[in-house]
Amino acid sequence: MASSSSSNHSFLLLLLFPLLLVLLLSTTVVAADSTATAEKYQKWCQVASDSPSCVKVIESIPGIQEVDYNNAGKVADLCLHFAANKTKEAKGAADTLLAAEKGKPASGCLKACATNIKSMAEVLVNLPAGQDDMNAYQTYKEVRAKFKNEKPPACEKDCWNKTSSSSSSAADIVDKFHDIWNVAKVGNMQINYIFPWPDSDDDDNIL
Protein backbone atom coordinates (compact mmCIF):
# COMPACT_ATOMS: atom_id res chain seq x y z
CA MET A 1 0.00 0.00 0.00
CA ALA A 2 2.84 2.36 0.94
CA SER A 3 4.58 1.51 -2.30
CA SER A 4 1.45 2.44 -4.27
CA SER A 5 1.19 5.79 -2.46
CA SER A 6 4.85 6.52 -3.17
CA SER A 7 4.34 5.71 -6.84
CA ASN A 8 1.38 8.07 -7.00
CA HIS A 9 3.45 10.87 -5.47
CA SER A 10 6.24 10.25 -7.94
CA PHE A 11 3.77 10.30 -10.81
CA LEU A 12 2.27 13.59 -9.61
CA LEU A 13 5.73 15.12 -9.32
CA LEU A 14 6.50 14.06 -12.88
CA LEU A 15 3.29 15.71 -14.06
CA LEU A 16 3.91 18.91 -12.08
CA PHE A 17 7.60 19.28 -12.91
CA PRO A 18 7.08 20.85 -16.40
CA LEU A 19 4.60 23.33 -14.93
CA LEU A 20 6.96 24.26 -12.11
CA LEU A 21 9.80 24.67 -14.61
CA VAL A 22 7.68 26.97 -16.80
CA LEU A 23 6.70 29.08 -13.77
CA LEU A 24 10.33 29.32 -12.66
CA LEU A 25 11.52 30.34 -16.12
CA SER A 26 8.74 32.91 -16.57
CA THR A 27 9.52 34.42 -13.16
CA THR A 28 13.19 34.64 -14.10
CA VAL A 29 12.35 36.32 -17.42
CA VAL A 30 10.04 38.85 -15.73
CA ALA A 31 12.70 39.63 -13.13
CA ALA A 32 15.32 40.07 -15.87
CA ASP A 33 13.01 42.35 -17.87
CA SER A 34 12.25 44.40 -14.77
CA THR A 35 15.96 44.79 -14.01
CA ALA A 36 16.74 45.80 -17.60
CA THR A 37 13.92 48.38 -17.57
CA ALA A 38 15.13 49.84 -14.26
CA GLU A 39 18.67 50.11 -15.64
CA LYS A 40 17.30 51.83 -18.76
CA TYR A 41 15.58 54.49 -16.64
CA GLN A 42 18.70 54.98 -14.55
CA LYS A 43 20.81 55.56 -17.67
CA TRP A 44 18.31 58.00 -19.13
CA CYS A 45 18.15 59.91 -15.84
CA GLN A 46 21.88 60.23 -15.33
CA VAL A 47 21.68 63.86 -16.51
CA ALA A 48 18.96 64.80 -14.01
CA SER A 49 19.59 66.85 -10.90
CA ASP A 50 17.85 64.19 -8.82
CA SER A 51 18.09 60.78 -10.48
CA PRO A 52 15.65 58.88 -8.19
CA SER A 53 13.01 61.58 -8.68
CA CYS A 54 13.63 61.55 -12.43
CA VAL A 55 13.21 57.77 -12.60
CA LYS A 56 9.80 58.01 -10.91
CA VAL A 57 8.66 60.59 -13.46
CA ILE A 58 10.13 58.87 -16.52
CA GLU A 59 8.60 55.49 -15.66
CA SER A 60 5.17 57.16 -15.46
CA ILE A 61 5.30 58.34 -19.09
CA PRO A 62 2.77 56.27 -21.09
CA GLY A 63 4.44 54.05 -23.68
CA ILE A 64 8.02 54.61 -22.59
CA GLN A 65 8.26 51.19 -20.95
CA GLU A 66 8.29 49.49 -24.35
CA VAL A 67 10.76 51.87 -26.03
CA ASP A 68 14.18 50.49 -26.83
CA TYR A 69 16.97 52.19 -24.89
CA ASN A 70 18.70 53.30 -28.11
CA ASN A 71 15.58 54.74 -29.78
CA ALA A 72 16.59 58.32 -29.00
CA GLY A 73 14.01 59.93 -31.29
CA LYS A 74 11.07 58.12 -29.69
CA VAL A 75 12.30 58.84 -26.16
CA ALA A 76 12.65 62.54 -27.00
CA ASP A 77 9.18 62.56 -28.58
CA LEU A 78 7.54 61.00 -25.51
CA CYS A 79 9.44 63.35 -23.20
CA LEU A 80 8.33 66.39 -25.21
CA HIS A 81 4.65 65.49 -25.10
CA PHE A 82 4.78 64.55 -21.44
CA ALA A 83 6.49 67.87 -20.66
CA ALA A 84 3.92 69.75 -22.75
CA ASN A 85 0.99 68.19 -20.87
CA LYS A 86 2.57 68.69 -17.46
CA THR A 87 3.59 72.26 -18.28
CA LYS A 88 0.00 73.11 -19.16
CA GLU A 89 -1.17 71.68 -15.82
CA ALA A 90 1.61 73.41 -13.89
CA LYS A 91 0.96 76.80 -15.51
CA GLY A 92 -2.72 76.60 -14.59
CA ALA A 93 -1.84 75.74 -10.99
CA ALA A 94 0.81 78.48 -10.78
CA ASP A 95 -1.50 81.13 -12.26
CA THR A 96 -4.26 80.18 -9.82
CA LEU A 97 -1.92 80.33 -6.84
CA LEU A 98 -0.43 83.68 -7.87
CA ALA A 99 -3.93 85.12 -8.31
CA ALA A 100 -4.91 83.88 -4.84
CA GLU A 101 -1.81 85.49 -3.31
CA LYS A 102 -2.22 88.79 -5.15
CA GLY A 103 -1.43 91.63 -2.76
CA LYS A 104 0.50 89.30 -0.47
CA PRO A 105 4.29 88.76 -0.50
CA ALA A 106 4.55 85.62 -2.64
CA SER A 107 7.63 83.47 -2.09
CA GLY A 108 10.63 83.99 -4.35
CA CYS A 109 10.51 80.34 -5.38
CA LEU A 110 6.86 80.57 -6.38
CA LYS A 111 7.60 83.62 -8.56
CA ALA A 112 10.71 82.01 -10.07
CA CYS A 113 8.97 78.71 -10.83
CA ALA A 114 5.87 80.41 -12.24
CA THR A 115 8.12 82.44 -14.56
CA ASN A 116 10.09 79.36 -15.64
CA ILE A 117 6.89 77.37 -16.24
CA LYS A 118 5.54 80.23 -18.38
CA SER A 119 8.74 80.20 -20.46
CA MET A 120 8.43 76.45 -20.98
CA ALA A 121 4.74 76.76 -21.88
CA GLU A 122 5.50 79.38 -24.54
CA VAL A 123 7.67 76.82 -26.34
CA LEU A 124 5.49 73.75 -25.87
CA VAL A 125 2.00 75.22 -26.26
CA ASN A 126 1.76 74.40 -29.98
CA LEU A 127 3.65 71.13 -29.95
CA PRO A 128 2.46 68.97 -32.88
CA ALA A 129 0.71 65.68 -32.20
CA GLY A 130 3.65 63.79 -33.71
CA GLN A 131 7.31 64.71 -33.74
CA ASP A 132 10.04 63.69 -36.11
CA ASP A 133 13.65 64.01 -35.02
CA MET A 134 14.19 67.40 -36.67
CA ASN A 135 11.05 68.89 -35.09
CA ALA A 136 12.18 67.62 -31.71
CA TYR A 137 15.59 69.18 -32.31
CA GLN A 138 14.01 72.55 -33.12
CA THR A 139 11.72 72.37 -30.09
CA TYR A 140 14.57 71.64 -27.70
CA LYS A 141 16.60 74.39 -29.36
CA GLU A 142 13.80 76.82 -28.50
CA VAL A 143 13.65 75.53 -24.92
CA ARG A 144 17.39 76.01 -24.55
CA ALA A 145 17.19 79.49 -26.08
CA LYS A 146 14.57 80.46 -23.46
CA PHE A 147 16.95 79.57 -20.66
CA LYS A 148 20.25 80.44 -22.30
CA ASN A 149 20.94 83.26 -19.86
CA GLU A 150 19.62 81.27 -16.93
CA LYS A 151 21.35 77.90 -16.76
CA PRO A 152 19.86 76.16 -14.89
CA PRO A 153 16.53 77.96 -14.45
CA ALA A 154 16.03 79.73 -11.12
CA CYS A 155 13.35 77.25 -10.09
CA GLU A 156 15.77 74.38 -10.61
CA LYS A 157 18.80 76.12 -9.12
CA ASP A 158 17.39 78.05 -6.18
CA CYS A 159 14.27 76.14 -5.17
CA TRP A 160 15.44 72.56 -4.84
CA ASN A 161 15.05 72.88 -1.08
CA LYS A 162 11.26 72.80 -0.80
CA THR A 163 11.36 74.40 2.68
CA SER A 164 12.19 77.72 1.01
CA SER A 165 8.65 77.85 -0.35
CA SER A 166 6.04 79.68 1.70
CA SER A 167 3.34 77.01 1.49
CA SER A 168 2.66 73.43 0.50
CA SER A 169 0.90 74.75 -2.62
CA ALA A 170 3.99 76.71 -3.63
CA ALA A 171 6.17 73.66 -2.92
CA ASP A 172 3.91 71.66 -5.25
CA ILE A 173 4.61 74.17 -8.05
CA VAL A 174 8.34 73.76 -7.38
CA ASP A 175 7.98 69.97 -7.62
CA LYS A 176 6.03 70.24 -10.86
CA PHE A 177 8.73 72.30 -12.51
CA HIS A 178 11.50 69.98 -11.32
CA ASP A 179 9.65 67.00 -12.80
CA ILE A 180 9.17 68.83 -16.11
CA TRP A 181 12.80 69.97 -16.20
CA ASN A 182 14.11 66.47 -15.51
CA VAL A 183 12.04 65.10 -18.39
CA ALA A 184 13.28 67.94 -20.61
CA LYS A 185 16.88 67.11 -19.71
CA VAL A 186 16.36 63.44 -20.62
CA GLY A 187 14.74 64.34 -23.94
CA ASN A 188 17.42 66.91 -24.70
CA MET A 189 20.13 64.34 -24.03
CA GLN A 190 18.47 61.94 -26.50
CA ILE A 191 18.29 64.61 -29.21
CA ASN A 192 21.95 65.37 -28.58
CA TYR A 193 22.75 61.79 -29.60
CA ILE A 194 21.03 62.36 -32.96
CA PHE A 195 22.08 65.96 -33.59
CA PRO A 196 25.07 66.87 -31.38
CA TRP A 197 24.74 70.49 -30.30
CA PRO A 198 27.49 72.75 -31.72
CA ASP A 199 30.15 73.86 -29.27
CA SER A 200 29.29 77.55 -29.18
CA ASP A 201 27.93 79.98 -26.63
CA ASP A 202 24.85 81.00 -28.60
CA ASP A 203 21.91 78.79 -27.71
CA ASP A 204 23.31 75.31 -27.83
CA ASN A 205 24.48 74.39 -24.35
CA ILE A 206 22.82 71.19 -23.21
CA LEU A 207 20.06 71.69 -20.64
TrEMBL record:
The keyword Signal applies. One of its GO terms (biological process) is plant-type cell wall modification. GO terms for cellular component: plant-type cell wall. GO terms for molecular function: enzyme inhibitor activity. The keyword Ligase does not apply. Residues 1-32 form the signal peptide. Keywords: Signal. This is Pectinesterase inhibitor domain-containing protein. It comes from Sorghum bicolor.
